[in-house]
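User: Teach me something about this protein's shape.
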Amino acid sequence: MAHAKTLPTAAETMRRARLPVLHRYDVPVVALDPAHEGLRVAHLSDLHVGSLTSHQFIRSAVEMAQAEQPDLVVMTGDFVCYSPKFVPLLGSLVRGFEVPTVCVLGNHDYWTDGHGVTAELVREQYTVLRNQHTRIYLRGAPLTIVGIDDAVTRQNDIARAFRGVHPHDSRIILTHVPSLIEPISERGGGLALAGHTHGGHVQIPGLTDLVFRKLGQHFVKGFYRVRDSLLYVNSGVGSSSVPIRAGAPAELAIFTLHTAPSVDEQVR
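Assistant: First, the predicted structure itself:
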């Protein structure tokens, strides 16, 4: 017997509007260790702790990620924007992850206070990679996370970040700027995660992507396959210019990793 669908109340609708969109994806990763089959990764980006984005909204995104009980959390830059006075708030807003949490910085972090942002994240026992990689064991198998520093402020050094990487480890690559996927993909397969674009922020079909391409940004939102690498560009949580989004809502992404026998496997 069919059951009538219960419509959300006005209060529930308003509450959902005050939360980022939660996207869950099953993701095939070339060369993933079988031990990491089903590994769950939470991806946050572009929190932009500042004056334009509600601090409660940012905290809600973090709490949503915690509620998903991921095995790993990654954050891809632009934690703050415009004023160093917001840096001390960062730690309290991202606090509470009890699983390995790995970060890279973005252009707004460097424009504001890169050392201060790093210090806040490290104080929470989170790892900040600046053209470095870390090797952690999850489910008994090594996972290499490569962190490439911000390209907008010319901090990036891909060769240094990959130096000494174990070629047979499962691999996740973090970069704030998605356009680095081309040189990243030349260094083997893996899942690459980025932010920076805000998904176009205001998506006008045909126009937004054209504008981004003219600015040299060919990877704006969602998934892209480049050689054996799979890139995901996160639309981010906060705003740095205008507080209005259209067609690119604030988001939290949760990835469940699966072994991909070939590059032809598709995201589900």
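Now, about its shape. The two ends are 30 Å apart (CA to CA). The first strand starts at residue 21 and ends at 30. If you'd like, I can walk through any region in more detail.
User: That's plenty for now, thanks!
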